[in-house]
Design a protein that fits this description.
heterodimer; A: about 575 residues; alpha/beta; nine-stranded mixed β-sheet; 27 helices; globular; B: about 270 residues; mainly alpha; about 75% helix
Chain lengths: ~575, ~270
């Protein structure tokens, strides 16, 4: 008996060992934990394919590192990850991490090192990911605790309206402090959107105060939605590229694209698109120079009243009928392998698909015969989205704000943006004199720039909060109008006709969900249901018949009279 | 100190704990959510909404139909195979059996993806271009592919147990192939059919990964419905889950899953 107890104690001890191991790893010192909850694949994860690695190694056409005869990577010099960049890294993260610098360090490891050097406090990042805003919201409602989340615009608003968020500290916005990298580097364009909610109706938090994103969120990435398309496939079908721009949202219902276009498998994006289809004419007729243009545009794209739903429902049905699939992430590969011609996509995903097609490879690295892909945003208006860092109630504000500031250093913003394909909200410090460029302009130039005499001037002044013509890069004409540059850094015209999503209040949410289930489900006619129910009943009857086969047996002759009696007597 | 006596019952404790936390408690939570509204007040509104909404009813019916077709196709494929395997004198028949079971050892999502790519490949041929939009067909093929082993195995094991002397007796008494099948093979393999049907029918009502990936998310079965409701409205989602639970319970009851003693042994004749 005693032995048994010893064994069980030993077993229990063995189970506890891992916990002890984590404790000892702290070396006795106090380690704070920062719990970050971010989108999947939404941060630089280190290694091959990262900004630093790719810049410092010779790559082949597919973007894979070239190896020399001894099997070693070939190191090269870079114009952007230059001595200044290296010096910054060495200074910020310390010698230990700098030794592995060329292999592409993980940005999260860097943060821990930087934080310890700067604040003299060990920190550990507990990093987890979610797939949709709604999944994240459920986790929060269930009471899971985090210090930092990265929801999209409408979800930030919803969380704030429900009083689930901490405000950023006033000191976070003090530009005179050196460690406030976010306010010092954020694009004035984004800052303005965050201060005004980009034309959305102003909501109230539970204390009755107006909610502005600026108070609750620091931007991370942003972009537009539009269509990735395959010009070669369209040309083969006799549809010129220009026709797309004329059709705008109507590509969703145009019979020529039947089975060749995809929509998103979530109600938010597809409902938005359906509004675009249903109200395209109205959207085109809006006076774009009017002061209330953006609010009116935003109102149309966020309408959830019964009349609107009634009008959008047939549109959604028509979309469902016309599209190839509702997808969440198969659209990119289907575009690349040529199965579909058009894919409704977020700009970051579009950049990814365009890059992939260009490399001539599918997602799993197989050779694919693919044409170049392009990107366009409907003329009638589209969606402008932001993902921002917010702190749920009870978060460790100091560490969370430090994390945001660290990610907002232009050098880190480049790394994240390069890795995930989305556009960072960071612009870099705007220099006093005009001859120097803000960091992210240098980055855009490095990605897409051409010699002055070879390209067109692509004006990005709006992003840097300067007058037109101040900041821009010279780029290939196609890059300026329909390729990666256009997707990643939209033109001011695209921005000017883009609406931000609002969140649905409870009643609207119920209505929209019912609508979505009607769209997704197969609506059977009453008579079909009756026929099927009868058929099922028949099967049930059949099964019952078989079960009570002793009583009703088609294959056995009936027992002779008296058999039953004899059996009973025996029993 | 009194040491608690160790008995055979003690071995049940882990399972009882498991049962409590992973079956009973979640069930109660579902029940709670299904009959409350957003303010957490008791309410029948989800119940009424469910049964007054043609969309949800037709989705349930639709799922049942898809599951039924899947089950029937599985049965039609698996029955002859199991029969031949069980009756054959082949020395290496386990190899053939293995071929049916082997796919189960490979990750499910991987397999569905593979089948998706396979269809993509096929649909590139002009004669098979219709496959592109044959969402229901592809979904059912995917389900059948996925659940076939669950049908083959129980059928095979019950058929193995059928005594050869019964067939000899049937032949002796002048029974032809037809009679032998309907009076010996079929009734004696009934338990296998029942457990196979249950194991295929129930999951194919809810397995929305297959319908999403092969049906291009245009085929919506009840499992997907539940998933989508849990994105925004847990109460309605719970109600749908509850209704599904009842359908499942009823069909299990029907196929005799709860009093399987005599069935499993295959001795009910």
């Amino acid at each position: 008996m005693k032995q048994k107890r010893i064994i069980s104690v030993a077993l229990a001890g063995a189970m506890l060992l891992p916990t002890l191991a984590t404790l000892t790893a702290c070396g006795g010192e106090e380690v704070i934990t920062l719990r970050v909850y971010n989108w999947e694949e939404y941060i630089d994860e280190g290694g091959e394919g990262t900004f630093i690695f790719d810049e410092l190694h010779e790559l082949d056409e597919e973007g894979k590192p070239v190896k020399d005869e001894q099997g070693n990577h070939i190191h090269i010099e870079s114009n952007i990850v230059d001595d200044d960049y290296k010096a910054w890294y060495r200074e910020a993260m310390g010698e230990d991490l700098f030794e592995e610098f060329e292999e592409g360090p993980r940005v999260l490891d860097d943060f821990c090192a930087w934080y310890e050097r700067k604040y003299g406090q060990k920190i550990r990042v507990e990093y987890s990911t979610f797939g949709t805003n709604e999944d994240m919201y459920n986790e929060i409602v269930l009471g899971n605790e985090y210090d930092l989340l990265c929801p999209s615009d409408y979800m930030i608003m919803k969380l704030a309206a429900e009083g689930r968020l901490e405000k950023y500290d006033e000191s976070f916005f003090d530009e005179s402090l050196e460690e406030n990298y976010y306010v010092r580097n954020v694009s004035p364009f984004i800052a303005e959107k965050f201060a005004t909610n980009a034309g959305l109706e102003i909501r109230k938090d539970p204390d009755g105060e107006d909610i502005y994103w600026r108070d609750y969120a620091a931007g991370y990435m942003w972009g537009t939605t539009g269509f990735v398309y395959n010009p070669a496939a369209l040309a083969a079908a006799g549809i010129p590229e220009e026709a797309l721009q004329e059709l705008g949202w109507d590509v969703f219902t145009d019979g020529r694209f039947k089975g060749k276009i995809t929509a998103k498998d979530n109600v938010r994006d597809t409902y938005f698109a359906a509004l675009g289809v249903a109200y395209q004419d109205e959207l085109m007729e809006l006076d774009r120079s009017a002061d209330d243009y953006i609010p009116r545009l935003t109102a149309i794209f966020n309408a959830t009243d019964n009349d609107t739903i009634g009008e959008v429902e047939p549109t959604l049905m028509a979309i469902k009928d016309n599209i190839y699939s509702f997808e969440t992430d198969t659209g990119k590969s289907d575009m690349v392998n040529g199965k579909i011609w058009l894919n409704y996509a977020w700009s970051g995903d579009a950049v990814y698909a365009l890059d992939l097609a260009e490399s001539g490879k599918s997602e799993d690295g197989e050779d694919e015969a693919t044409a170049y892909l392009n990107y366009f945003v409907p003329e009638a208006g589209s969606n402008l989205f932001f993902d921002g860092w917010v702190m749920p109630k009870g978060a460790n504000k100091q560490a969370a704000e430090a994390f945001v500031n660290f990610m907002s250093m232009p050098q880190n913003a480049m790394r994240n943006s390069y890795y995930i394909g989305y556009t960072s909200v960071i612009a870099g410090e705007i220099p006093e004199e005009d001859d120097a460029d803000p960091a992210m302009l240098t980055y855009a130039d490095y990605l897409y720039g051409e010699e002055e005499d070879e390209g067109e001037f692509y004006d990005l002044s709006y992003f840097f909060g300067a007058e037109d013509g101040t900041y821009g890069i010279f780029a290939d004409e196609e890059q300026c109008t329909k390729r990666q540059l256009f997707a990643q850094f939209p033109t001011p015209e695209v921005i000017a006709r883009s609406a931000v999503m609002d969140y649905y209040d409870e009643e609207a949410s119920v209505r929209i969900n019912e609508l979505w289930s009607r769209v997704k489900a197969e609506s059977l006619e009453l008579w079909t249901i009756v026929v099927i129910v009868v058929a099922v009943a028949a099967i049930v009857g059949g099964v019952l018949l078989l079960k009570f086969g002793n009583k009703i047996d088609f294959f056995r002759s009936k027992p002779k009279k008296g058999y039953k009696k004899v059996k009973e007597e025996r029993a | 100190m009194k040491i608690p006596r160790f008995s055979r019952k003690t071995l049940c404790i882990p399972y009882a704990v498991f049962l409590l936390f992973f079956v009973i408690v979640p069930m109660c939570v579902i029940l709670f959510y299904a009959f409350t509204d957003r303010q957490m007040h008791f309410s029948f509104s989800n119940f009424l909404r469910f049964f007054s909404d043609p969309t949800k009813l037709s989705t349930i019916v639709y799922s049942i139909v898809i599951a039924l077709i899947t089950t029937v196709v599985c049965l039609l494929i698996a029955y002859p195979v199991a029969l031949i395997l069980a009756r054959s004198k082949l020395k290496k028949k386990f190899v053939i059996l293995m071929l049916f079971v082997l796919p189960m050892w490979i990750n499910f999502v991987l397999r569905v993806n593979a089948i998706r790519e396979f269809f993509n490949l096929l649909s590139q041929a002009e004669a098979l271009a219709w496959l592109e939009s044959a969402n229901i067909f592809k979904t059912i093929v995917g389900m059948v592919y996925d659940f076939l082993p669950f049908m083959v195995l129980p059928l095979y094991t019950t058929m193995l147990k059928i005594d050869d002397s019964l067939y000899e007796a049937s032949a002796d008494l002048g029974g032809n192939v037809f009679t032998t099948f309907f009076r010996i093979t079929l009734p004696l393999s009934m338990p296998g059919i029942m457990s196979g049907v249950t194991m295929v029918f129930l999951p194919s009502m809810t397995n929305y990964v297959v319908s999403d990936m092969l049906g291009n998310a245009k085929v919506t079965i009840i499992g997907k419905f539940i998933y989508e409701y849990f994105g925004s409205d847990w109460h309605m989602g719970s109600m749908v889950a509850l209704v599904l639970l009842i359908v499942v319970f009823a069909s299990t009851l029907l196929s005799g899953g709860f009093k399987s003693e005599e069935n499993v042994r295959g001795t009910n004749i």
